[in-house]
Amino acid sequence: MDYTGCVAMIRNLCLEGKLRAALWLRNKMIQKGVIPDVLTHNYLVNGLCKAGDLEKADNLVREMLEIGPSPNCATFNTFIKGYCLNNNVDKALYLFSTMANSGIGPNKVTYNILIHALCKKGLLKDARKLLEKILDDDCGKETSDIITSTIFMDGCLKKGDMVQALVHWDEMLQRGTQIDVVAYNVLIHGFCLIQDMNSAYRYFCEMFKRGLLPDIFTYNTLISGFCKIGNLDEACYIHGVMSKMGAAPDLISYKMIIQGLCIHGDVIRANQFLVCMLENLMVPEPLIWNVVIDGHGRHGDLSNALSIRDQMVSFGIPPNVFTYNALIHAQIKGGNIVDAHSIKKEMLLNGIYPDVVTYNLLIGAACNFGRIHFALRLYDEMLRRGYEPDIITYTELIRGFCIRGHVMEAEELLAKLQRSGLSIDHAPFQILIQKYCRTRVPGRAYDLTKLG
């Protein structure tokens, strides 16, 4: 195989993750007195860094310095990024400092990698120093590096330093930096993180004044922010604006708006958005179907919950354990414990096993109806299937025993809960305290207040 064929094979092996074979072929070439070019070596360094084998990457770079080819800026950038991804920023900075000794000047990519890593570790002062260095180098240009500036600003915002981010934003404007959509997205996302939706919306409007059209990320960020603070009307408005402005809502847009509406109890509007998705030939993921099913169930609308499930199946989306749990919850809310248990049987017939949530729902319902023996059978079945009871399981059973007047059994279960190692809240103690107060056993109630 000739030189061109060998280096092409080394590069392909690196892309396929077959690094051992790539290194073997490289060594064979060197033994024959042929040294692969720097680009091929960069493929090898990149592959080793991605695999997390930084020691081998280090040895390879050392060999390059000794026998050639000389590393270039891309080699160091790849190596520096490898250490940053491995959370070893100190080593990355050391490599950065050695570049000059090797006669290689860092480029903007080098700075971007390091600034991003420093910001991620919360070392904003160090990141700021690097940023100032690159901006000073750019002083002769009409515009400075928007990418580097945006990376720094994003780091500030993710660490909650809104003040420094805004100071840098103002500096960008003063320097005449051509602010782009990505920079606005970063700033808007930062305001959404601290739930300052007024400022987020103000900068959104400012984009239009600057002749910039928001992209799908801008709209989705605003929708998410408004949903999180419960301003669903504004979220729906932004969703409606998108299409008119040429940014058609995607699966994420619909997912956020439907989830937000269901969480805040507006299932009717959520259902309308679900229909809109289907009309736009978008097949929702299981999570979206499940959220709407659960929303109808929580409002006691069992008929619509079952209808959405059937629609889900008709679109080729098989129900999962979350779907069935939502339906079981809906049946229980409607007082249909027998039908709820039938859904559990349907799950098993379809090859889907109940989880702890399923059992907790059914155990809680059985206790509500005073059917403690049925609840205990479910509890035993849960253990046989290898599920560990959680705090909710124990609390529901303690409540069930108290409803039936079996206080000793409830006490035994509380003792078992205390031995289980689970994190216990006040609820199981409160149930027993109330029971003892009603049955006029204040002494034991007082003892439990000290425990709970």
From TrEMBL:
The keyword Repeat applies. PROSITE patterns: PPR. PPR repeats lie at residues 2-36, 37-71, 72-106, 107-141, 145-179, 180-214, 215-249, 285-319, 320-354, 355-389, 390-424. Keywords: Repeat. The keyword Cytoplasm does not apply. Belongs to the PPR family. P subfamily. This is Pentatricopeptide repeat-containing protein. It comes from Vitis vinifera. The lineage of its organism: Eukaryota, Viridiplantae, Streptophyta, Embryophyta, Tracheophyta.
